[in-house]
Q: What sequence folds into this?
C-alpha cells in the first residue's frame, strides 16, 4: 500500500465508527486534560514563584544572621564585587506617643508592625513606590519613619504626625504605595514600617533577646550571567559553611520551601491525574476492542482482497495513535483552559504576576502520555487485527485466532512498563511508581483469576431448572467470544483506580481541612523578662485571657555532637540540603520542663531517666537532622558557658495544635541560672485583644505581643479552599471515570443488540431479554467491583499513604457499596445500549448489520 | 492439454470438534485449466465453501498441496498469500461482502488501488457502467439492493483482471430473475476477459452454463463431468 492509498483507507475505515471514535477521543481527552492541568498548574506556580524571587529577596543574594555578623562573614562579603547594602528586620510594636489607658471601642493606640531598618541604596531589586514619590533615603532622616497606610489609619495618625518606636520618638514622613518584596497572601504579622538604620540605633529594639534578622544584600555587578552568579553564590556558601548562624540566600533558589510544597501537592494531584488517564486508557482499550470487533468482517474482506495482515495492523495502529493524538490535543486544550480558570478563580491566593497557562513542558507531557496510553491500551485489541482469519468471509462466527502466548505476554509487559513509566512521570517518585504498577499488575492477575473462577462456577451451575432469563444470562457469560474475562478485567481495574482516588482524596482533603484545634492559642508573648512574668500573667487574666501558659527560653549554640564540632559536621554533610546543615549551626532555643505538653509523645528512650547526666529530649525529626540518637552527647555554648547534655529521649510533636513547642527540651535543674526570657501563649477574648496590647505596651514595653487569631483564620481559610480544590478534582476524576466505564461497557456490549433482536424474533419478551442482559452484566460488574474494591483498598492503604503521609481510614460503607454500585452501573449501561434494539422491530436491527 | 492454472493434490481439511476430528474435505484431487469455467455442485454442508477457501489460500489444508500457476500456495505465509490474492484471485460471495463503509465506487477501486494500477479511476467507471451501475457509484452498500450489491461485487472482482475468479453461490441470496441477470453479467465479463472461473452452486440451471461440473458430497468428489 502506498502512502496515498494508506491515508485514503484510514479515512474510509473510520466511516461509520465516528461516534465510537469520538468516545475514544473523549476518554483519552479527559485523562490528558487532568494531566496537563496539574502539570501546567504546578509549572506555572513554580515559574511565578521563581519570577517573584528576586524582587522578594530585594537583591541578587542576601547573607543573613540573627546575631551581629562575625568577622569571617564580613570579610567574605566584602570580597564580593558589586553593590551592597544592609538591613535589619524585626517584628515590634508601634505606639502613638503618650498613649493613655486604652478605652474599649476607641482606636487602638499600638500596633504590631514588621519593621525594616535600611540604608541607601535600597532596594537593590524590585520596586518600592512611596508617597510622596521620592527616594526612600530622602524620607528617612534618623527620626523619620515611612509606614504602610494601614498603620496610619489604625493608629489615627497622619503624615507629619508623631509615633513612638522602642522608646524613641519618630515623625511619619511618608507612606508606602507599593512594595515589591511582599508576596500577596504571604504570611504577615503586621503592616510594614521603614526607618533608617541610624533610626533603629536610636531605639532600644536591637538589644539583648530581640529577634533581629540582619541582612547584607548584594547585587552582583551588572552583566553577571546566571551561571556566574550561581558560582559566586556557591563559593560564598562554601566560605561561610563553618561560620555559625550565617546563611546565604539567593533569588536563584527562589523560595525552596514554597516550591517544595507546590511540588508535593502537585505530585499528589499528579497521581489523581494519572488515575484519570488510566481510566481513560481502560476506556480506550474497551473502545478499540469493540471497534475492532465490529470491523472483523470488513477486515476479513480486506484480507480476502489481498491486504496483508501487516498493512491492516498498521492501518488500525496508526488510526489508534492518530485518534490518541487528536484526543490528547483536545485534552491539552481543555487542560490549558483549566489552568487559566484556576488562575482566574484563585487570583487572590496567587502571586501578583498571576499564572501563565502556556506551559510547553506540561503540554508535551500530556500529549506524550496520551498517545502512549492510547497505543499501549489499544495494543491488546490490535493484536486481534493481525489474526483475523480470512475464512470469516464464509463463516461469520470465525473469531480471530488468539495471538501467541509470547506475543500476549509481551503486550502485557509493554503495557505494564508503560503504566510504570507514566506513574513515574506523574508522581516523580520511582518508589511509588514501582509499587503502584506492581499493585496494579497483582490486581489484574487477581481479576483474571476471579473471572476464570466465575466462568467455571457458571459452567457448574445446573441450569435446566432456572428461569429463562437467568439461564440465558448465565450461558451468555460463558459462551465463546463473550469477552467476559476482558470485561471483568477492564471494569475491575477501572473500579480500582476510581475508588482509589475517592479513598485517598477523601483523607487528603480531610487532613487539609482538619478543624484547627479549638484551644490553640490566639496570641504569643515574646521577650518577657522572667521577673515581668507575674505582672504580665496578672494583666492577661484580668482581661479575660484563658489557657495562659509560659515557658522559659534559653538561647544557645550547638557546638558538638558526640564530640565532633558542628562546623566540621556541617562541612562533612556538604551534600545535604542547606536546611539540614542549618539545623546544626543556627542559634538554638532551649526550654526546660518537668512534664511534656499533651501534643508531645515520647517515641524512643524515656524522659528524664538518667540520674547521672544532664538530659535533653529531642524532637525526632530535628534529631534526624543533626544526626543524634538516644545516648548521643550534645555540647552547647550557652552564652559563653559550655554545657554538655545527654539525649535520653526522642519525641514526636503534633505541630498542628499550634501550641508552644521546642525541638530541645532540657531536664529541670540545669538551665535555671542561665540568662533567659519567657515565651507565653494564651487565648485572648477577641474583643479585648486591642486593649491588652495597649496595656502591655504601656506597662511592659519590651514585650512583643503576636496575635495569631487572624493568621489561624487565614490558614484555616486557605486549607479549606485547598481541600475543596482537591475534593473537586477528585470528584471530577471519579465522575469522569464512571462515565468512561459506563461508556466502555456500552461499547463492549454493542453487538449484544443483535442478539437481543434475535431473541425477540424467537419469541422472547422484552422483559425477558432485558433480564437476561441485566443478569449477565450485573454478574460481571459484581465480580469486577469486588476485586477492584479489594485492590483499591490495598493500594490506597499502602502506596499512597506511605508517599503522602496521609492517615488512611476508608469508610466501610463506601467499600461495601462499591461492588453493588459497579454491578448496577454495569447492568444499567449494558441495558442502555440494548434499549434501541429492544424497542425497534427486530428486522431493522438484523438488516442494519 | 492446457497447463493447469490451479491444481489440488490430495487435499484434506480436518477440524477438531469436541474430542474428535471432523473431516470436511477428504483427499481431493482436482485440476482446473486456465480459461476453464468449472461449477462445483453439492448439497449444503458438503464442503464447497471450504474447498473454495483453500483454492484462494484463505485457509490451509490439513494435508495435501494447492498449486496456483505452479506456486505451492499451501506453503506460503499469510502475507505472501495476501499479496498473491491481490494479483491473481478475484472473489464473489453469496452474501456480497462489500465493505460497508466504502461507497460502491470505492469498493470497486480498492483492489485496483492495492495493485497500484494506472488508470484505476477510469477502469472503475468502466466496470460500474458494464454492470449497469454507472450512476450509483457514490452510494453506500446499505443504499443498494441485493442484486445491485452483487453487481458491485462483480465489478470489484473483475477489476484487476485476475487470472482466477472464485464465486461462492453468487445468486444464492437473490430471487431468480435478479439471479439470472447477475449470472448473465458474470458470464459476459468472464468471456470478455478470459478469466478462469470456479463457481459454487447447487442450482443445476446455473451449473449448466459451465464447461465442467464437479459434484461434491461429504467432502469427496462424487462425480466430475466435462461438458461435451
Ligand atoms: N470452522 C469450522 N468449524 C466447525 N465446522 C466447520 C468449520 N468450517 C466448516 N465447518 C463444517 O464443515 C462442513 C462444510 O462446510 P462448508 O464448506 O461451508 O459447506 P458448504 O459451503 O458446502 O455448504 C459443514 O458441516 C460445516 O459445519
Ligand atoms: Mg457454502
A:
Amino acid at each position: 500500500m502506498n502512502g496515498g492509498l494508506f491515508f485514503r483507507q484510514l479515512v474510509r475505515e473510520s466511516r461509520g465508527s465516528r461516534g465510537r471514535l469520538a468516545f475514544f477521543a473523549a476518554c483519552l481527552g479527559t485523562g490528558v486534560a487532568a494531566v496537563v492541568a496539574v502539570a501546567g498548574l504546578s509549572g506555572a506556580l513554580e515559574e511565578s514563584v521563581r519570577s517573584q524571587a528576586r524582587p522578594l529577596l530585594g537583591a541578587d543574594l542576601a547573607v543573613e544572621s540573627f546575631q551581629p555578623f562575625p568577622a569571617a562573614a564580613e570579610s567574605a562579603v566584602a570580597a564580593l564585587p558589586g553593590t551592597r547594602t544592609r538591613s535589619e528586620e524585626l517584628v515590634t510594636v508601634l505606639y502613638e506617643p503618650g498613649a493613655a489607658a486604652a478605652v474599649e471601642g476607641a482606636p487602638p493606640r499600638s500596633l504590631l508592625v514588621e519593621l525594616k531598618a535600611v540604608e541607601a541604596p535600597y532596594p537593590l531589586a524590585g520596586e518600592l513606590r512611596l508617597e510622596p514619590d521620592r527616594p526612600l533615603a530622602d524620607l528617612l532622616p534618623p527620626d523619620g519613619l515611612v509606614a504602610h497606610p494601614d498603620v496610619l489609619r489604625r493608629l489615627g495618625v497622619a503624615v507629619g504626625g508623631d509615633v513612638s518606636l522602642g522608646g524613641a520618638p519618630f515623625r511619619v514622613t511618608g507612606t508606602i504605595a507599593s512594595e515589591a518584596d511582599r508576596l500577596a497572601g504571604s504570611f504577615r504579622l503586621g503592616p510594614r514600617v521603614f526607618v533608617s538604620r541610624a533610626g533603629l540605633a536610636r531605639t532600644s529594639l536591637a538589644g539583648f533577646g530581640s529577634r533581629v534578622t540582619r541582612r547584607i544584600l548584594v547585587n552582583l555587578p551588572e552583566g553577571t550571567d546566571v551561571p556566574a552568579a550561581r558560582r559566586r553564590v556557591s563559593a560564598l556558601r562554601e566560605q561561610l559553611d563553618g561560620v555559625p548562624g550565617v546563611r546565604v540566600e539567593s533569588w536563584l533558589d527562589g523560595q525552596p520551601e514554597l516550591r517544595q510544597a507546590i511540588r508535593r501537592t502537585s505530585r499528589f494531584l499528579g497521581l489523581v491525574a494519572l488515575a484519570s488517564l488510566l481510566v481513560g486508557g481502560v476506556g480506550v482499550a474497551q473502545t478499540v476492542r469493540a471497534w475492532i470487533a465490529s470491523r472483523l468482517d470488513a477486515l476479513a474482506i480486506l484480507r480476502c482482497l489481498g491486504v496483508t495482515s501487516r498493512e491492516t495492523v498498521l492501518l488500525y495502529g496508526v488510526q489508534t495513535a492518530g485518534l490518541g493524538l487528536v484526543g490528547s490535543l483536545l485534552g491539552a486544550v481543555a487542560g490549558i483552559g483549566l489552568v487559566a480558570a484556576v488562575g482566574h478563580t484563585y487570583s487572590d491566593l496567587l502571586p501578583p504576576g498571576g499564572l501563565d497557562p502556556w506551559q510547553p513542558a506540561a503540554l508535551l507531557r500530556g500529549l506524550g502520555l496520551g498517545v502512549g496510553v492510547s497505543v499501549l491500551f489499544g495494543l491488546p485489541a490490535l493484536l486481534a487485527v493481525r489474526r483475523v482469519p480470512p475464512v470469516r468471509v464464509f463463516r461469520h462466527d470465525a473469531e480471530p485466532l488468539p495471538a501467541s502466548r509470547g506475543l500476549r505476554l509481551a503486550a502485557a509487559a509493554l503495557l505494564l512498563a508503560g503504566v510504570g513509566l507514566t506513574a513515574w512521570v506523574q508522581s516523580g517518585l520511582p518508589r511509588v511508581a514501582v509499587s503502584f504498577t506492581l499493585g496494579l499488575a497483582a490486581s489484574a492477575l487477581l481479576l483474571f483469576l476471579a473471572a476464570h473462577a466465575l466462568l467455571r462456577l457458571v459452567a457448574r451451575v445446573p441450569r435446566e431448572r432456572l428461569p429463562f432469563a437467568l439461564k440465558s444470562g448465565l450461558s451468555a457469560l460463558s459462551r465463546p467470544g463473550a469477552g467476559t474475562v476482558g470485561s471483568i478485567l477492564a471494569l475491575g481495574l477501572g473500579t480500582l483506580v476510581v475508588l482509589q482516588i475517592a479513598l485517598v482524596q477523601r483523607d487528603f482533603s480531610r487532613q487539609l481541612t482538619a478543624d484547627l484545634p479549638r484551644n490553640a492559642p490566639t496570641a504569643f508573648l515574646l521577650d518577657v523578662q522572667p521577673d515581668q512574668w507575674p505582672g504580665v500573667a496578672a494583666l492577661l487574666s484580668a482581661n479575660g485571657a484563658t489557657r495562659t501558659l509560659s515557658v522559659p527560653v534559653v538561647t544557645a549554640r550547638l557546638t558538638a555532637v558526640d564530640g565532633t564540632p558542628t562546623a566540621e559536621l556541617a562541612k562533612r554533610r556538604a551534600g545535604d540540603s542547606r536546611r539540614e546543615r542549618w539545623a546544626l549551626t543556627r542559634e538554638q532555643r532551649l526550654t526546660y520542663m518537668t512534664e511534656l505538653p499533651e501534643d508531645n509523645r515520647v517515641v524512643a528512650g524515656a524522659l528524664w531517666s538518667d540520674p547521672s547526666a544532664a538530659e535533653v529530649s529531642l524532637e525526632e525529626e530535628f534529631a534526624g537532622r543533626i544526626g543524634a540518637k538516644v545516648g548521643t552527647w550534645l555540647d552547647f555554648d550557652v552564652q559563653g558557658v559550655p554545657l554538655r547534655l545527654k539525649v535520653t529521649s526522642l519525641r514526636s510533636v503534633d505541630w498542628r495544635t499550634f501550641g508552644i513547642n521546642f525541638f530541645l527540651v532540657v531536664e529541670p535543674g540545669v538551665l535555671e541560672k542561665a540568662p533567659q526570657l519567657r515565651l507565653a501563649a494564651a487565648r485572648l477574648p477577641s474583643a479585648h485583644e486591642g486593649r491588652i496590647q495597649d496595656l502591655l505596651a504601656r506597662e511592659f514595653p519590651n514585650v512583643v505581643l503576636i496575635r495569631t487569631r487572624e493568621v489561624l483564620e487565614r490558614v484555616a481559610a486557605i486549607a479549606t479552599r485547598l481541600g475543596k480544590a482537591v475534593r473537586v478534582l477528585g470528584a471530577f476524576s471519579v465522575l469522569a471515570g464512571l462515565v468512561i466505564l459506563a461508556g466502555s461497557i456500552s461499547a463492549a456490549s454493542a453487538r449484544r443488540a443483535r442478539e437481543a433482536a434475535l431473541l425477540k424474533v424467537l419469541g422472547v419478551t422484552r422483559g425477558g431479554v432485558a433480564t437476561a442482559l441485566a443478569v449477565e452484566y450485573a454478574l460481571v460488574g459484581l465480580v469486577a467491583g469486588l476485586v477492584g474494591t479489594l485492590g483499591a483498598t490495598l493500594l490506597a492503604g499502602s502506596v499512597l499513604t506511605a508517599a503522602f503521609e496521609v492517615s488512611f481510614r476508608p469508610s466501610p460503607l463506601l467499600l461495601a457499596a462499591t461492588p453493588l454500585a459497579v454491578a448496577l452501573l454495569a447492568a444499567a449501561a449494558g441495558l442502555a445500549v440494548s434499549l434501541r434494539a429492544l424497542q425497534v422491530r427486530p428486522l431493522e436491527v438484523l438488516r442494519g448489520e | 492439454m492446457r497447463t493447469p492454472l490451479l491444481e489440488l493434490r490430495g487435499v484434506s481439511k480436518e477440524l477438531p470438534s469436541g474430542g474428535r476430528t471432523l473431516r470436511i474435505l477428504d483427499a481431493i484431487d482436482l485440476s482446473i485449466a486456465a480459461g476453464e469455467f468449472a461449477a462445483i455442485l453439492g448439497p449444503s454442508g458438503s464442503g464447497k465453501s471450504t474447498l473454495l477457501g483453500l483454492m484462494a489460500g484463505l485457509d490451509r489444508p490439513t494435508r495435501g498441496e494447492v498449486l496456483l500457476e505452479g506456486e505451492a500456495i499451501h506453503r506460503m505465509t499469510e502475507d505472501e498469500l495476501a499479496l498473491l490474492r491481490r494479483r491473481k484471485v478475484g472473489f464473489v460471495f453469496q452474501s456480497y461482502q462489500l465493505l460497508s463503509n466504502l461507497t460502491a465506487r470505492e469498493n470497486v477501486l480498492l483492489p485496483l488501488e492495492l495493485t497500484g494500477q494506472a488508470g484505476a479511476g477510469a477502469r472503475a467507471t468502466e466496470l460500474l457502467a458494464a454492470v449497469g451501475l454507472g450512476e450509483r457509484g457514490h452510494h453506500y452498500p446499505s443504499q443498494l439492493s441485493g442484486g445491485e450489491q452483487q453487481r458491485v461485487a462483480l465489478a470489484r472482482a473483475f477489476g484487476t483482471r485476475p487470472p482466477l475468479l472464485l464465486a461462492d453461490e453468487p445468486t444464492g441470496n437473490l430471487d431468480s430473475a435478479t439471479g439470472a441477470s447477475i449470472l448473465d453479467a458474470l458470464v459476459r465479463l468472464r468471456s470478455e476477459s478470459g478469466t478462469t472461473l470456479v463457481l459454487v452452486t447447487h442450482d443445476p440451471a446455473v451449473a449448466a452454463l459451465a464447461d465442467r461440473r464437479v459434484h461434491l458430497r461429504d467432502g469427496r468428489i462424487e462425480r466430475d463431468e466435462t461438458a461435451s
Q: What stands out?
A: The helical segments of chain B are 48-55, 78-88, 104-115, 120-130, 146-158, 176-193, 204-207. The CA atoms of residues 104 and 137 of chain B lie 5 Å apart. Residues A 394-395, 398; B 15, 22, 24, 42, 44-50 surround adenosine-5'-diphosphate (ligand 1) (CB under 6 Å).
